[in-house]
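Trying the structure run again after the queue cleared.
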Amino acid sequence: MTTELHVLAWGCILALVHVFAAAQVKTRQYGTKWNLGARDEMLPPPTPMVGRLARAQANFFETFPLYAAAALTVTLAHLGDRWTAIGALLWIGGRIVYIPLYALGVPVLRSVAFIVSLAGILMVLRPALAAVFH
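Done. C-alpha cells:
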C-alpha cells in the first residue's frame, strides 16, 4: 500500500480523534444527561475550549476530502513518488499538530500548521495536475 493511502487511513483515525475530542469537552460542559438526551434544549454559550475544538473539527472536515481525493487520484493513476509521500506526511503532521494548537488558542503556529497541511495536499496533487499539461 502506498504512503498516501496509509496516511489516508490514519486521517480517518484523526477524524475520529476530532469527533471524540470535541464531544468530550462539550459533554464535560453540558453534562452526560444532555449528551444522552435529545439535545433539544437551549444551551448556554460554549466555553472557549468547546468552541475551539468544534472549529478545529469543522476545519478538518473541510480539508480532509481534499486530501482523500488527492491521495486516491495519485494512487489510482500510479503517479505517486517520493514528493507525494512527503506531501502526505506533511498533511497528516500538520493536521496532528493543529489540534492542540487550536485547542490551546495558539494563534500564529496554528495557522502555520494549517498552511503546512495545505502545502502537503498540493504536493500530493502536483503530479496529477502536471499530467494534465503533458
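The chain has one domain: 3-132. Worth checking whether this holds up in the mutant runs.
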